[in-house]
């Protein structure tokens, strides 16, 4: 059976989500999507200009086969995130929404409390809600109860390229979450993306590392390969892998005689 | 603690004494510490602004470029200014708009504001900076509120560069759709501040200094501050502005903080600048600020020449103005056809001379040619 990722009502064969920010030219987005085989891309509503000509519109550079994930970048409260999400829907950006409520502009760290409130409202309104969050298992459960379609814990601060500095917390979320876990932010190298996938993350979102590479198209392809390799390693249940709890031949079975 | 108390601690600081004692070792220690999410302290900023750091501009630039790329990507934001009134009750000794300068003052009607807005929006500009002199009797809050609400129909972001207001007034304008605030302290050295602002509402140093804080408390989401280089000793002013930006970043963690480097180049309305900031000093300041605050916005206006601005893209700048007119009604009302012409109409009074007279299209092309993406829209009024 094919290994698919399900988010809300949609299924995806790629487990690499990408972003539209920070590119030297919007014209790189199309080729990057092709090379990375990414099927979902996030776009900040604040950068979407419905009045812009085709060349200048970000949306014009994203093929119809790729699902848009508008995000609420710029929101500082749940209320602002909700308003941005509604504008995104009205602007024709679809039913998906990535909630970003930032309480710290310096490292773009999310406000879990406000994120949870926005998730409750938007899930009720029928959005497929993907909240960007600080890795906290309690909040992760609450987001599930509030109707989120996945959780997006940060690996490390956005744009920091530091990889999985929140490793231990993300592992706990993976182990306990009833929702798909998408590691978002801080992944700076394909090896870090592979690590997240090996740990059992369902997907990763990579923007800065691809967009600011000298060759973003090649970087997109490198990340695609790393994500696939990491996923395969997870499915292969490598020896010593954290989640491989069920040994096929019990070592202490004889004790039950 | 407000920034006033912090600024007070440095009013008597011996900047020349400190700067002259900085060694190459001090500079390299501070420089090596920068980046990778490390936080430089005030002493590091002083070291990077010192004469000793001039020998390290290239390594500073390399690191500043990498940090800017990491946090802002290959993008440059664009905006344009719109002057809607040049009535002013202030006596700034260095300003072409001051109360004693004799020229015919103007204030745009709401219809004229709309006409200018249409023309500027037609250039592709989506972020507007709206400016006035300081004459609340001529430009009362209800006029400004109506101006802002007109602008929200044409632009995605409306920034204010008017005069220091109360928190309540900023709340009004925020509710009308303004989201950002620019206010320059002009000079952080208080003694000098009092000398160049002898009369008028602007003579209140503390009220002006605390303006960004009032704006942030009123809900504005972005603050842009800076000294006017040419008034005080540049590097101590650069230090104080950096300290101010850091203070705001810490006090208001969900506000975007930017610094600008407006610099006087000649006697614009009265006195000749005592302390010209050289191109080297300009670049050193920008680099030191970037290393001190990785996520800091750095705005560069058309005061700077085309060739110089082109270089700044790689040195930490994040936002440019483009196609600017710095006289009231400069786009259409006073100068019909000005938008297609290279310069401003010589009959009008401009607040400062524009040296980068390129059109929005030309600046956009230059940004693309430099390997960067021009970003016209980076906000949504909601």
What structural keywords apply?
heterodimer; A: alpha/beta; 5-stranded parallel sheet; 3-stranded parallel sheet; 12 strands; B: 382 residues; alpha/beta; 9 strands; 40% helix
Secondary structure layout:
The complex is a heterodimer of chains A (about 260) and B (about 375).
Chain A: E1 5-7, E2 10-12, E3 16-19, H1 29-36, E4 40-44, E5 67-71, H2 78-90, E6 96-99, E7 102-104, E8 109-110, H3 112-124, E9 128-133, H4 137-146, E10 152-153, H5 167-176, E11 182-184, H6 190-199, E12 203-206, H7 208-211, H8 216-235
Helix pairs in contact in A: 1-8, 2-3, 3-4, 6-8
Chain B: H1 3-11, H2 15-21, H3 24-33, H4 42-49, H5 57-72, E1 75-85, H6 110-122, E2 127-132, H7 141-151, E3 157-161, H8 167-176, E4 180-182, H9 190-196, H10 205-209, H11 211-217, E5 222-225, H12 234-251, E6 256-260, H13 279-292, E7 297-300, H14 306-312, E8 319-321, H15 360-369, E9 373-375
Parallel strand pairs in B: 1-2, 1-8, 1-9, 2-3, 3-4, 4-5, 5-6, 6-7, 7-8
């Amino acid at each position: 059976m094919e290994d698919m990722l399900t988010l809300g009502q949609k299924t995806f064969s790629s487990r690499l989500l990408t972003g539209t920010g920070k590119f030297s030219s919007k014209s790189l987005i199309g080729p990057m999507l092709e090379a990375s085989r990414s099927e979902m891309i996030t776009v900040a509503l604040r950068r979407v200009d419905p009045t812009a000509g085709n060349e200048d519109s970000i949306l014009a550079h994203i093929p119809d086969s790729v699902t848009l994930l508008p995000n609420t970048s710029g929101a500082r409260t749940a209320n602002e995130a909700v308003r941005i999400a509604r504008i995104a829907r009205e602007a024709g950006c679809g039913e998906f929404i990535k909630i970003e409520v930032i309480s710290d502009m310096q490292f773009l760290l999310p406000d879990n409390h406000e994120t949870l409130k926005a998730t409750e409202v938007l899930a009720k309104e029928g959005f497929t809600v993907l909240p960007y969050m600080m890795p906290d298992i309690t909040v992760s459960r609450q987001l599930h109860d509030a109707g989120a379609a996945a959780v997006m814990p940060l690996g490390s601060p956005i744009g920091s390229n530091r990889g999985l500095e929140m490793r231990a917390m993300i592992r706990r979320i993976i182990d306990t979450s009833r929702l798909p876990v998408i590691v978002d932010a801080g992944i700076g190298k394909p090896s870090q993306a592979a690590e997240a996938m090996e740990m059992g993350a369902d997907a990763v979102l990579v923007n800065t590392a691809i967009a600011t590479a000298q060759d973003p198209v090649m970087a997109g392809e490198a990340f695609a390969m790393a994500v696939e390799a990491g996923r395969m390693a997870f499915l292969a249940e490598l020896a010593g892998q954290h989640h491989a709890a069920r040994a096929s031949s019990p070592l202490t079975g004889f004790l039950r005689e | 603690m407000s920034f006033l108390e912090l600024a007070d601690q440095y009013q008597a600081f011996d900047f020349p004494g400190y700067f002259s004692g900085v060694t190459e070792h001090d500079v390299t220690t501070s420089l090596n510490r920068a980046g990778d999410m490390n936080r430089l302290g005030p002493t590091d900023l002083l070291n990077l602004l010192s004469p000793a750091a001039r020998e390290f501009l290239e390594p500073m630039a390399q690191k500043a470029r990498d940090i800017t790329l990491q946090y802002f990507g290959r993008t440059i934001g664009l905006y344009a200014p719109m002057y809607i009134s040049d009535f002013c009750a202030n006596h700034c000794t260095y300003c072409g708009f001051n109360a004693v300068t004799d020229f015919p003052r103007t204030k745009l009607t709401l219809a004229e504001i709309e006409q200018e807005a249409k023309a500027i929006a037609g250039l592709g500009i989506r972020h507007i900076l709206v400016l006035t002199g300081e004459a609340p009797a001529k430009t009362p809050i209800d006029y400004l509120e109506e101006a802002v609400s007109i602008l929200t129909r044409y632009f995605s972001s409306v920034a204010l560069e008017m005069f220091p207001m109360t928190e309540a007034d900023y709340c009004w304008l925020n509710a009308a759709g303004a989201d950002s605030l620019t206010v320059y302290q002009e000079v952080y050295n208080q003694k000098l501040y009092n000398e160049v602002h002898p009369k008028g509402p602007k003579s209140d140093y503390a009220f002006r200094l605390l303006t960004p804080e009032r704006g942030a408390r009123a809900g504005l989401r972005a603050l842009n501050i800076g000294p006017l280089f040419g008034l005080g000793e540049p590097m101590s002013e650069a230090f104080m502005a950096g300290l101010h930006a850091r203070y705001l970043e810490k006090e208001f963690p969900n506000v975007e903080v930017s610094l600008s480097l407006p610099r006087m180049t000649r006697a614009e309305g009265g006195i000749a600048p005592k302390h010209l900031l050289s191109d080297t000093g300009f670049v050193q300041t920008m680099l030191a600020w970037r290393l001190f605050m990785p996520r800091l916005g750095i705005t560069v206006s058309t005061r700077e020449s085309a060739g110089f601005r082109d270089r700044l893209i790689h040195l930490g700048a994040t936002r440019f103005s483009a196609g600017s007119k710095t006289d009231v009604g400069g786009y259409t009302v006073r100068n019909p056809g000005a938008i297609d012409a290279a310069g401003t109409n010589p009959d009008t009074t401009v607040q400062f001379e524009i040296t980068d007279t390129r059109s929005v299209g030309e600046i956009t092309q230059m940004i693309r040619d430099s390997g960067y993406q021009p970003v016209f829209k980076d906000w949504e009024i909601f």
